[in-house]
Amino acid sequence: MNILHITCSPRGKSAESYLLSQRILARLLEKNPQANIISRDLWADQLPHVDSDYAASLGGTRQFSGEESKTGSLGMSERLIVELESADCIVIGTPMHNFTVPSVLKAWIDHVVRIHRTFNATPEGKVGLLADRPVFIAASSGGHRIGERSRQPDFLEPYLRAILATIGLHRLTFFTVQGTAFGPEPLAGAKLEADQAIAGHFNSARS
């Protein structure tokens, strides 16, 4: 089993989203102790934005040779898509930045959501070309993005559900640590809630 672990917080391994994603990984490894984890820290190793050759290839304005398609952001796109295709399961740890995903995660999405490669456009809409598989998303937010205490828009979860479904990934499960900016006591309660949600999910999946 291959698990693709994507993280994207500037706080690195101290980030609540990273720590939450580690607790998800621990549950997955309980069931699959020999699993191979492919780690990609999008903040530590930031991706270039897509370039003009990538845009030309998507627009069909140029035909690219095999060698050309291995270079620049088109080549990076292909490597990231192959990495994604090789994963049996995906874990994404992400904070909420300005009501949505961080720019580094958006850059990764721009590389892997590619017409004629991971989705096709049809008269009925976009059709994903990747095989579906479990995607676990560990999200953190300074405020409350969902629930009764939410006082802000949430463009993170709806966006990820829509964009990943575009390429064929529909089996998304979200776990959330909210209110990280409200001090140690509320944070401890939020982490406990998230841990209970993780335990409930994986215990029910086992039964």
Walkthrough of the structure:
This protein has 207 residues and is of the alpha/beta class. It has one domain (2-206): Flavodoxin domain (Rossmann fold), CATH 3.40.50.360. It contains 6 helices and 7 strands; from the N terminus they run βαβααβαβββαβα. It has helices at residues 16-31, 52-59, 72-85, 103-112, 156-166, 184-206, and strands at residues 2-7, 36-41, 89-95, 119-122, 125-128, 135-140, 172-177. The chain has a 5-stranded parallel sheet. Helix 3 (72-85) crosses helix 4. The longest helix is centred in the last third of the chain and has 23 residues, at 184-206. The chain is globular, with a radius of gyration of 18 Å.
In terms of topology, how is this protein built?
Layout: E1 2-7, H1 16-31, E2 36-41, H2 52-59, H3 72-85, E3 89-95, H4 103-112, E4 119-122, E5 125-128, E6 135-140, H5 156-166, E7 172-177, H6 184-206
Parallel strand pairs: 1-2, 1-3, 3-6, 6-7
Antiparallel strand pairs: 4-5
Key descriptive features of the protein:
globular; two-stranded antiparallel sheet; Rossmann fold; alpha/beta; five-stranded parallel β-sheet; 7 strands; 207 residues
Q: Care to give the gist of this entry?
A:
The protein is α/β, with parallel strands linked by helices. The chain has helices spanning about 15-30, 50-60, 70-85, 105-110, 155-165, 185-205; strands at about 1-5, 35-40, 90-95, 120, 125-130, 135-140, 170-175.
* Order of helix and strand elements from N to C terminus: EHEHHEHEEEHEH
> Sheet with the most strands?
5 strands, parallel
Shape: globular
Which radius of gyration do the C-alpha atoms yield? 18 Å
Can you list the strand order of the major beta sheet?
2-1-3-6-7
Determine the number of helices (DSSP H or I, runs of at least 4 residues): 6
For CATH, the homologous superfamily is named as Flavodoxin domain
User: Class, according to the CATH hierarchy?
Assistant: Alpha Beta
Q: Which percent range fits the helix content?
A: 25-40%
Stretches with pLDDT under 50, minimum 5 residues: none
CATH architecture: 3-Layer(aba) Sandwich
Q: Structural class from helices and strands?
A: alpha/beta
User: Strand tally, please?
Assistant: 7
Average pLDDT value? Answer: 91
**What share of the residues does DSSP label as strand, in percent?**
15-25%
Termini Cα gap? 21 Å
Integer tally of domains? 1
CATH topology: Rossmann fold
